[in-house]
Amino acid sequence: DAALNTVNVGKFNLCTASIGICEHAMYEAVTHASNRILYGRPVTAFPHVRRELTDAYVRLVGMKLFSDRAVDYFRSAGPDDRRYLLFNPMTKMKVTTE
């Protein structure tokens, strides 16, 4: 049982590390796009670029919420409540593929 818990903690750490990487990449993308000038306007002024950045931000927020649910399941885990065993692999898969 201890080995399984160690694997689950590792999966969770992979999830949170992925969120941090995505968050930093998002900030870098926004900074680059706002400093880049095309046709006399910043790239962030174009509607399709704003839509893509907004979509990326919404996905990032969704990943954070999904990860927070995994934290809640870990904290409430006990002999009778083992939801984290099912939710943790789903969290790793969803967060790392989004």
Question: Concise description?
Answer:
By secondary structure, the protein is mainly α. The chain has helices at residues 2-35, 47-75, 84-97, and strands at 37-38, 41-42.
| Poorly predicted runs | none
CATH architecture title? Up-down Bundle
| Structure summary, number of beta strands | 2
What spatial form do the alpha-carbon principal axes imply? Answer: elongated
How many separate helices?
3
Oligomer description: single chain
Percent helix among the residues? over 70%
Could you please describe the fold and organization of this structure?
By secondary structure, the chain is mainly alpha-helical. The protein has a single domain, classed as Butyryl-CoA Dehydrogenase, subunit A, domain 3 (Up-down Bundle). It has helices at residues 2-35, 47-75, 84-97; strands at 37-38, 41-42. It has a two-stranded antiparallel ribbon. Helix 2 runs antiparallel to helix 3. The radius of gyration is 18 Å and the shape is elongated. The chain starts with a helix and ends with a helix. The model has no long low-confidence stretch (mean pLDDT 85).
